[in-house]
Design goal:
- The complex is a heterodimer of chains A (about 110) and B (about 110).
- Chain A contains no helices and 11 strands.
- Chain A is mostly beta strands and about 110 residues long.
- The N and C termini of chain A lie far apart (about 30 Å).
- Chain B contains no helices and 11 strands.
- Chain B has strands at about 5, 10-15, 20-25, 30-35, 45-50, 55, 65-70, 75-80, 85-95, 105, 110-114.
- In chain B, the strands form 2 sheets. In chain B, strands 2, 4, 5, 6, 9, 10 and 11 form a 7-stranded mixed beta sheet that branches. In chain B, strands 1-3-8-7 form a 4-stranded antiparallel beta sheet, with no helix packed on it.
- The relative contact order of chain B is 0.34.
- The chains are: A mainly beta (about 110), B mainly beta (about 110).
Chain lengths: ~110, ~110
């Protein structure tokens, strides 16, 4: 979506941490989301964060939200080759349909 | 657990032909969404239905139409197909509730227009 920006590519080594960044523009989004898409597959919800929170941790995933700067990040600890995929952040300006960023392609090398 | 079912998974059409995609949402989900994802692009929202009524409209071309039926399945009809309509079409469903609106996506229907 034109209002949600992400860096296009990220390459990390297996075992390192990955940090994927996202900037959104709609401050009315109550929730912000991270989806994962593997080649030729659908979008899989990874996690989401309520806009009044600044951090959410879920196993290897940590989401940080800076509402003032409208900046969202997804940290994947101990990145594995199976984490290689495209990661989309999404806002929900109308509260229903999601508006996606262009996606960050994560490549994990052995 | 039941997921969102889309059919067909792959479809090849000629320019100016018509195509119909079907979506079966998760049982008891009340909202269905259609998204279009071009090669290397992000998913673009087309249209959504809440309880069988159109609830929101995105960048859906006039050549496309959609509806949701009494059994909650939805169909996306695309007419006068153009080469640029070649894309992955995703259907998603959600259940309205307080809290996050979690969309569950189907595996997609890949349309190729020749």
């Amino acid at each position: 979506g034109e209002d949600v920006e992400q860096s296009l590519f990220l390459s990390v080594r297996e075992g390192d941490s990955s940090v994927i960044n996202c900037t959104y523009t709609d401050s009315s989004s109550t929730y912000l989301y991270w989806y994962k898409q593997e080649p030729g597959a659908g979008l899989q919800l990874l996690t989401y964060i309520f806009s009044n929170m600044d951090m959410k941790q879920d196993q290897r995933l940590t989401v940080l939200l800076n509402k003032k700067d409208k900046h969202l990040s997804l940290r994947i600890a101990d990145t594995q080759t199976g984490d290689s995929a495209i990661y989309f952040c999404a806002e929900s300006p109308s509260g229903y349909a999601l508006n996606f960023g262009k996606g960050t392609s994560l490549l994990v090398t052995p | 657990a039941a997921g969102v079912i889309q059919s067909p998974r792959h479809l090849i059409k000629e320019k100016r032909e018509t195509a119909t995609l079907k979506c079966y949402p998760i049982p008891r989900h009340d909202t269905v969404y259609w998204y279009q994802q071009g090669p290397g692009q992000d998913p673009q929202f087309l249209i959504s239905f809440y309880e069988k009524m159109q609830s929101d409209k995105g960048s859906i071309p006039d050549r496309f139409s959609a509806q949701q039926f009494s059994d909650y399945h939805s169909e996306l009809n695309m007419s006068s197909l153009e080469l640029g309509d070649s894309a992955l079409y995703f259907c998603a469903s959600s259940r309205t509730a307080t809290g996050a609106n979690v969309l569950t996506f189907g595996a997609g229907s890949r349309l190729t227009v020749l």
